[in-house]
Specification:
Strand content: 25-35%
Helix content: 10-25%
Number of strands: 16
Pfam families: Lectin_leg-like (PF03388)
Membrane topology: Single-pass type I membrane protein; Single-pass membrane protein
Order of helices and strands: HEEEEEEEEEEEEEEEHEH
Structural class: alpha+beta
Strand order of the largest sheet: 1-4-14-6-7-8-9
Largest sheet: 7 strands, antiparallel
Number of helices: 3
InterPro entries: ConA-like_dom_sf, Intracellular_Lectin-GPT, Lectin_leg, VIP36_lectin
Oligomer: single chain
Organism: Pygocentrus nattereri (Red-bellied piranha)
GO molecular function: D-mannose binding; metal ion binding
Distance between the termini: 21 Å
Radius of gyration: 24 Å
């Protein structure tokens, strides 16, 4: 009986942990409540606030083409660079950005490039000559081409990076030496649009993706200890080299998160915060890490399967042991009658 109770308790604890994990994943993404939408930081069809006038909330550079249906950062042509930037600095302490995008082109597998970057930076970056790649803030890279031939990753690959201006994204190593985490995502040449959600709240950065257009978010990156200031700018950029793709932004929607802070946090000057991440090891230590991650990756895919398998095996073992013990006790009791 005691063994059977042990089995029940194990099942109960496992189910609680399982539910807590997935509730933490899916509660991280807002339902897109319109009343929290910040239009001054959002890029939405038909893109009326885009232009070069002083009243525009978004401006663009390079090969960017603005239509009524999408903002094309680069066409499917070689050696193109384009970007679009919000002209209004963001002073929200807790926010969530939803990016609807599409990467497509005529190139076959591994014959396309190079990808899209989503930015939250101190200055609006201009691609091209004169740009050294150093920045202050946050960058999310949707990299579609592996420059590092020795890489064991599956591309396209999504990664995050926080910089205080002292180091740049390493294109030759696909950003591996500076990334905070990442995941593979089949975002190219889909018949539908793909989605990326970037959430920053109370020092935690969460990246979610929806590549199947099912309105279901899947966790890609979840990192604590992230410090980002207010007053930075949101933007998106893309580039092509010898290989190319169409890189389209359909929308960028910014939502304010209603989060309470301590009096000490509210009294702090958030514009003076230095972009940083509290990690157990330096980003440079990630060069020799075959997984390419600083921390344990989310419970997804085969890791979930292994966890379930181990839990089920543990339950079966406990059940068998409990049954044997129970049977022996019954036999022992019979001898006294």
């Amino acid at each position: 009986l005691a063994a059977l109770l042990c089995v029940c308790k194990m099942c109960h604890i496992f189910l609680l942990l399982w539910l807590l994990h997935f509730s933490s994943v899916y509660s991280d993404i807002t339902d897109g409540n319109a009343e929290h939408l910040k239009r001054e930081h959002s890029l939405i069809k038909p893109y009326q606030g885009v232009g070069t006038s002083s009243s525009s909330q978004w401006d663009f550079w390079g090969s960017t083409l603005v239509t009524s249906q999408y903002v094309r950062l680069t066409p499917d042509e070689r050696s193109k660079q384009g970007s679009i930037w919000n002209t209004v600095p963001c002073y929200l302490k807790d926010w969530e950005m939803h990016v609807q995008f599409k990467v497509h082109g005529s190139g076959k597998k591994n014959l396309h490039g190079d990808g899209i970057a989503i930015w939250y930076t101190k200055e609006r970056l201009h691609p091209g000559p004169g740009s050294n790649g150093n920045f202050h803030g946050l960058a999310i890279f949707v990299d579609t081409y592996p420059n590092d031939e020795a890489s064991d990753r599956s591309f396209p690959y999504i990664s995050a990076m926080v910089s205080n201006g002292s180091f740049a994204y390493d294109h030759g190593k696909d950003g591996r030496s500076t990334e905070l985490g990442g995941c593979s995502a089949e975002i190219r040449n889909k018949d539908h649009d793909t989605y990326l959600a970037i959430r920053y709240s109370k020092g935690r950065l969460t990246i979610m993706v929806d590549v199947d257009d099912r309105n279901e978010w899947k966790e890609c990156i979840d990192i604590g200890g992230v410090r980002l200031p207010t007053g930075y700018y949101f933007g998106a950029s893309a580039a092509t080299g010898d290989l190319s793709d169409n890189h389209d932004i359909i929308s960028m929607k910014m939502y304010q998160l209603m989060v309470e802070h301590t009096p000490e946090e509210d009294s702090q000057d958030w514009t003076k915060i230095e972009p940083s991440v509290s990690l157990l090891k330096s980003p440079k230590d990630n060069i020799d890490d075959p997984t390419g991650n600083f921390r344990s990756t989310p419970l997804t895919g085969w890791k979930v399967f292994l966890l379930l398998l181990c839990a089920l095996l543990g339950i079966v073992v406990c059940a068998v042991v409990g049954a044997v013990v129970f049977q022996k006790r019954q036999e022992r009791n019979k001898r006294f009658y």
